[in-house]
Every structure is written in C-alpha cells, then in structure tokens.
C-alpha cells in the first residue's frame, strides 16, 4: 500500500482479451474504481473543448499509443477526484516508459492482472464486437495493427513487472464467468 493508502491494480492484456468485461465484474463485487485508459481517451476525443481530440482520434484509428502526457493526465485527474482509494487501471501502461513514469511519479501498482489470451480468440471477439460497437478501431486493418503494437510495445511492460514478481497471469479463453472465478480470489484480501 502506497503512502496515502492508495492501491492501484493494472489490468493488462491484448486487444479484446476481456479487460473491460472483467473490470465490470470486479466493480460489481468489490466497488473498486475502474479507470479504462481507452475509455478516458475516447471521452476526451469527443470533448469539443479538448485540444487533443484530433490527435487522439488519429492514434486510435491507427492502433498507436497516444503520447503518455495526455493519458497520465486523464488518469491522474480521475484518481484525484475520486473518494475511493482502490483503482483498477485498465489498458495502461502500454509502454515501458509509461510504466516507469507512473511507478516513479504516481504510484507503484499493488499487482498486475495479465489477461493472457490467444490471438485468434481475441480477433474473433473484436470482429464480432465491431458489428455493433461503432469503435473506429474494431476493423480488421486496425485490429492487426493493435496486435502488432501490443506485442512489440506492451508485452515488455508485462516482462518488466514479472521481474518485480507482481504479475498474476490469467488464461482467458474460457467464458467471462470462468475467467472471473480465477480473478476473484486474488482480490478478496483487499479492503477499501
Ligand atoms: N468478451 C470478453 N471476454 C470474453 C470471454 N471470456 N469470452 C467470450 N467473449 C468475451 O471484450 C472484448 C469483446 O469480447 C467484447 O465483445 C466482450 O463481450 C467479449 P472487452 O472486455 O471489451 O476486452 P478489452 O480487453 O477491454 O478490449 P479492448 O478492445 O477495450 O482492448 P484494447 O486494449 O484494444 O482497447 P483500449 O480501449 O484499451 O485502447 C484502445 C486504443 O486507445 C489503443 O489501441 C490506443 O490507440 C489507445 N490507448 C492509448 O494510446 N493509451 C492507453 O493507455 C490506452 C489506450
Ligand atoms: Mg477495453
């Protein structure tokens, strides 16, 4: 537990691995605050007063990682505004420098949930979701780019935290409920 009592859990995994789905289940049972970096960026992109909207849109459409100043600012603001002290940060950090920056300047994570999912399974989930999601990155061209960026830029983040012995690897090709059964016990000891 960091000074001030803040607990941060990073929920990481490839595109479509089920980060959002599992975080919703955790919120329902434990009441932690769920901060999806992707959702925060999409919200900012749609804010007409934001100067970063066009940039965010371009990066998301290309499956690229938005410069971290923008993302860290959005996450930190939500953390400061919250009365809660246990946060699930979903889909961030996505790059080694982001992980190092956040650990040094915001807080060290309590642990990492790494949703480890087969690429073909993730691809089928995203294509299916793309039929109705309206997300500009749920198309086959962008999905392939997201996989490449995940492998090249985001997997090193998992390795970085593995060296610190902070990673719980959760296989997640089974149903959402079955995956959640493996996650739930890891959270039971944490109190608000
Ligand atoms: N589904 C989920 N679990 C299932 C299961 N066990 N069995 C069967 N189906 C399952 O799930 C995806 C779909 O699969 C859903 O239809 C779900 O019902 C089904 P979801 O829970 O949404 O998976 P998630 O891992 O959250 O997938 P998401 O698409 O959100 O992951 P990404 O990491 O690709 O997207 P994110 O929103 O985090 O980021 C989008 C973009 O924003 C990035 O590509 C990047 O451009 C930008 N970004 C940054 O630049 N910086 C950041 O820090 C974060 C994002
Ligand atoms: Mg998500």
From TrEMBL:
<comment type="function">
    <text>Catalyzes the phosphorylation of pyrimidine nucleoside monophosphates at the expense of ATP. Plays an important role in de novo pyrimidine nucleotide biosynthesis. Has preference for UMP and dUMP as phosphate acceptors, but can also use CMP, dCMP and AMP.</text>
</comment>
<dbReference type="Pfam" id="PF00406">
    <property type="entry name" value="ADK"/>
</dbReference>
<dbReference type="GO" id="GO:0005524">
    <property type="term" value="F:ATP binding"/>
</dbReference>
<dbReference type="InterPro" id="IPR006266">
    <property type="entry name" value="UMP_CMP_kinase"/>
</dbReference>
<feature type="binding site">
    <location>
        <begin position="91"/>
        <end position="94"/>
    </location>
    <ligand>
        <name>a ribonucleoside 5'-phosphate</name>
    </ligand>
</feature>
<dbReference type="GO" id="GO:0009123">
    <property type="term" value="P:nucleoside monophosphate metabolic process"/>
</dbReference>
<feature type="binding site">
    <location>
        <begin position="16"/>
        <end position="21"/>
    </location>
    <ligand>
        <name>ATP</name>
    </ligand>
</feature>
<feature type="binding site">
    <location>
        <position position="42"/>
    </location>
    <ligand>
        <name>a ribonucleoside 5'-phosphate</name>
    </ligand>
</feature>
<dbReference type="GO" id="GO:0006207">
    <property type="term" value="P:'de novo' pyrimidine nucleobase biosynthetic process"/>
</dbReference>
<keyword id="KW-0547">Nucleotide-binding</keyword>
<dbReference type="GO" id="GO:0005634">
    <property type="term" value="C:nucleus"/>
</dbReference>
<protein>
    <recommendedName>
        <fullName>Uridylate kinase</fullName>
        <ecNumber>2.7.4.14</ecNumber>
    </recommendedName>
</protein>
<feature type="region of interest" description="NMPbind">
    <location>
        <begin position="36"/>
        <end position="66"/>
    </location>
</feature>
<keyword id="KW-0418">Kinase</keyword>
<dbReference type="GO" id="GO:0019205">
    <property type="term" value="F:nucleobase-containing compound kinase activity"/>
</dbReference>
<dbReference type="InterPro" id="IPR027417">
    <property type="entry name" value="P-loop_NTPase"/>
</dbReference>
<keyword id="KW-0539">Nucleus</keyword>
<feature type="binding site">
    <location>
        <begin position="64"/>
        <end position="66"/>
    </location>
    <ligand>
        <name>a ribonucleoside 5'-phosphate</name>
    </ligand>
</feature>
<keyword id="KW-0808">Transferase</keyword>
<dbReference type="InterPro" id="IPR000850">
    <property type="entry name" value="Adenylat/UMP-CMP_kin"/>
</dbReference>
<dbReference type="GO" id="GO:0006221">
    <property type="term" value="P:pyrimidine nucleotide biosynthetic process"/>
</dbReference>
<dbReference type="GO" id="GO:0005737">
    <property type="term" value="C:cytoplasm"/>
</dbReference>
<feature type="binding site">
    <location>
        <position position="129"/>
    </location>
    <ligand>
        <name>ATP</name>
    </ligand>
</feature>
<keyword id="KW-0067">ATP-binding</keyword>
<dbReference type="InterPro" id="IPR033690">
    <property type="entry name" value="Adenylat_kinase_CS"/>
</dbReference>
<comment type="subunit">
    <text>Monomer.</text>
</comment>
<feature type="binding site">
    <location>
        <position position="174"/>
    </location>
    <ligand>
        <name>ATP</name>
    </ligand>
</feature>
<feature type="region of interest" description="LID">
    <location>
        <begin position="128"/>
        <end position="138"/>
    </location>
</feature>
<comment type="similarity">
    <text>Belongs to the adenylate kinase family. UMP-CMP kinase subfamily.</text>
</comment>
<feature type="binding site">
    <location>
        <position position="135"/>
    </location>
    <ligand>
        <name>a ribonucleoside 5'-phosphate</name>
    </ligand>
</feature>
<feature type="binding site">
    <location>
        <position position="146"/>
    </location>
    <ligand>
        <name>a ribonucleoside 5'-phosphate</name>
    </ligand>
</feature>
<keyword id="KW-0963">Cytoplasm</keyword>
<feature type="binding site">
    <location>
        <position position="98"/>
    </location>
    <ligand>
        <name>a ribonucleoside 5'-phosphate</name>
    </ligand>
</feature>
<keyword id="KW-0665">Pyrimidine biosynthesis</keyword>
<dbReference type="GO" id="GO:0016776">
    <property type="term" value="F:phosphotransferase activity, phosphate group as acceptor"/>
</dbReference>
């Amino acid at each position: 537990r960091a000074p001030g009592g803040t607990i941060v859990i990073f929920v990481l995994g490839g595109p479509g691995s089920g980060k959002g789905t599992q975080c919703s289940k955790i919120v329902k049972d434990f009441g932690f605050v769920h901060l999806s970096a992707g959702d925060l960026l999409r919200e900012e992109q749609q804010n007409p007063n934001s100067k970063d909207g066009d940039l965010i849109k371009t990066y998301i459409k290309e499956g690229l990682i938005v410069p971290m100043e923008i993302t860290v600012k959005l996450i930190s603001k939500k953390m400061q505004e919250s009365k809660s002290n246990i946060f699930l940060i979903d889909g961030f950090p996505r790059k080694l420098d982001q992980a190092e920056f956040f650990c040094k300047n915001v807080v060290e994570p309590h642990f990492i949930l790494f949703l480890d999912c087969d690429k073909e399974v993730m691809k089928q989930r995203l294509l299916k979701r793309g039929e109705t999601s309206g997300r500009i990155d749920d198309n086959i061209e962008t999905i392939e780019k997201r996989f490449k960026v995940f492998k090249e830029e985001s997997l090193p983040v998992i390795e970085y935290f593995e060296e610190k012995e902070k990673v719980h690897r959760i296989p997640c090709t089974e149903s959402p409920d079955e995956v959640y059964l493996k996650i739930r016990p890891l959270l039971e000891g944490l109190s608000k």
